[in-house]
Every structure is written in C-alpha cells, then in structure tokens.
Predict the structure.
Amino acid sequence: MIQTKQIGLQEVLSAAIKRATDEKILVSFVKQIDWIDPLLFYAAGKRISFENRCYFADPAQHVIFAGIGSVFTIATSSNKRFQTARDEWDKVKEKAFVQRERYEFGTGPLLFGGFSFDQEKEKTDLWKEFDDTTFSLPAFLLTVKNEKAWLTMNTFVSATDCAETLYNEIVSLEEKIFGESKCALEGSKLTVTSKVEVDPKGWMKAIEKVQDEMKQGNVQKVVLARELKVEMDHHIDSALVLEALRIGQPDCYVFSFDYKGACFLGATPERLIRKEDEKFTSMCLAGSTGHGQSIEESKRNSNALLHDEKNLAEHGYVVNMIRGVLNEHCESVNIPESPGLLTTKNLIHLYTPVEAKGDASLLTMVEELHPTPALGGTPRLEAMKLIRDVELLDRGLYGAPIGWIDDEGNGEFAVALRCGLLNGEKASLFAGCGIVIDSVPQLEYEETSLKFRPMLGALEELMK
C-alpha cells in the first residue's frame, strides 16, 4: 500500500494510473469536510440511484459511518470464508494508493458487511441477495467522529484511464451527493396490511426438543430464534426506519446494509469485537429481563436479574467462551469477576465488559468468537447442529457478525440483533433467546416478543 500526503485527487489518480499495469489499483482519497448528518448522506444515495449503501453508528465511541455505492465486493460461500475475505482484502490493499494527511480510525478504504450466522444451514430465498460472506467497499464514505467529518472517495484505476476524466466524474458525483444531503427525510404515511408470527407453536415445540437433548446431557444451552413477517401498503424506506431506530434506541449500534435491492438493518446492543491497533474490546451480553411499569419495579427486576441462577448460568457460558478465545490470541485479558447491567429502552441485560491486548487479526478474532453461546449455545458444535435441525428459520445475517474493517486492520463487528430484512413492502423481523433445561416455553416466547419491539416500534413510526 502506498500512502501519499497533501496532494490533490487528480494528482493521486494520475500517479496510480502510471503505476497500474495488468490489473486495476484502488485509489482512496480522504479529506476533512464540514459536518453532514450521516443519515441524510445515506438517504442521498438512494435519490441518486445508488443500490448499495451502508450505515453504522457506534454511540459508545461516537463514530458514525454512511457509505454510498460500491467499487469492490467480496461475495463468497467458500468453506474458508474468513480466510477468503482476509486474502481478497489483502490483495486490494497491497497496491492501493491512499491519500490522507494522517490516519484517522474509520477513514480511508473500509470494507463494510458481514458473515452469515451458519454457513451449513440450508439456504432459503429469504436471503437470496446475500452470500455467506458479503462485504462492500463504498464509493463514497462519510465518517463522523465527535462532530468532525471526513469524506473518503474510493475508485479503481487502470493503465488506460484518464485522470482528468475520472476526476471530473468523481467531483460531479460528490457535488450531487452533497446537494441531496441537504434534503430533509420525508415519506408517505404507511399502513400495515399483514403481520404474521411464523409458527409460534412449532417454535415452542422446538424448545421441548432441545430440552430433551439437554436431559440426555448432550447440550447445556441452545439459542432458538423465530421470525415475524410484516407487510406494509407501500415500499418501506430504510432511511426512515434508521431515523426511528437512532432516536428510539440511542444506546445501541444502529446499522443498515443495503445490497442488491434488499436491506438488512437493526439496532443491536451487542458488540462482538473491536480492534484499534493492538487493543481489543468485546462484551459478554446474555441474560435479560423486561422493564417494569415503574422506576421501582425496574429496579426490582434489575436486582432480581443480578441474582437469577438461570440467567447467571447463561451469562457464565458466554464469559468462559470469550475468555478462552482471548487468552489464546492475546497477551493480556481483563474481564471483571461478576456482571453488571446494560439497560436499553426495551430490556435490561447482564453485561460484562472485556478488554485485551494482542496482535491477532480482526477477522481471525471474528472467526474464533462467532457464534458465542449468547447466539449459538454450548457446547458450540452440538448446539449449532440442534439449531439446524429444529429451528424454523434461515437466520442469514441475523445473529451474525456485521461491521467493518479498514486498511490498517482496525475495525469493529457487532452481533446483528433486534433487526430485520426489508424487501420492498415486506419486512422479516428476527428475535431469539437462550434455552436451558429449566426454560419455560411460554416465558421464552414472551421474551422474544419483547425483542421484536425495537424494530416493530421503528416500523410503527412510519405509520404516524
């Protein structure tokens, strides 16, 4: 990778064209710009007919990304999908021209996307637009950090390209995007025409099948998910859903991945892994309860959760697994002895923060950590097999790692929860919960109903 400083876009394009021989070279140009609302930037992409977009907001770090267009994709169902993603991204970075005054976390060439929950699960048409590995390099990436903003422009050049022509095309698109980013979000009032829970009785029977396996000592915990289908009378605008999520779920990662006409989006409380230089941060999030009807009742629920044996056991499975992975790949690992609480609008969770230092690659850590017992179960292999056998759902990207990685190997992946898949007027929403031997199916059903609320609430905002 070639780093250049303080020269213009046209000069960088010209230098890259001269260096290009028999293959195209990535040019990535970063500049600081005036603040723009990332959601309006994201919405502008659709108005100028960009099919692929992304949005990722991390409130804890105050970093928001919005990407428009795609100049490079990794889309594969390879059995070695994590290694394939690493190799393909390394090839692009190796000869890339990157212009920036200095490195800023989350700027420059940045891949956004994710891995499916289970590569071995039989696929359905629900997720036909997405592969088991799907990543995209945006043509235009807006990064907002602590009220400062940067624009990264990415393109590929070949030896026969004209720098002036490319420059004019990029600047013209940039001007259109900035112009459209001044437009407020607006949309017609929608009406729900259909809302269907997919076989709730079958889902509760699946819980009983899993518990039969537990009685035989084959597994200790299995996470089972279910689907809620919603249909509106008109196309569902993902930008309006994101606006509702970022207002209604301020303590969560808010994300969207628009790809080939489908849109996967949500508001998840759970980080899988973040890497900045040699510092890793993760979290253990398992065991939850609802808020009460009053502040006092919520306090009682919180205290009960901290002492509930079932939820503490579920949480312990996650802590032990994440500790084991980090101890294997990192030099130092810091995990508190007992959990605290993480409170979101709809739920209260048992929460343990995790920090570590090491030089492992981010995608290696994603591969090793996914799925944690919070989304799969324990033991992992046995739980995953049971999920394939009894769950009435192709999870696709639900419960899977979604996030980004940049040219320095830094990045962050969240666990895709409280989410849905939009396709035209239709939305499929997903929710799951951890099953242990003494779980009560009806109570688990009620817990998943709570977990549908963030997405249902966001869709309901479109009806006002």
Q: What stands out?
A: The first strand starts at residue 2 and ends at 4. The chain has two domains: 2-180, 192-461. The first helix runs from residue 9 to 19.
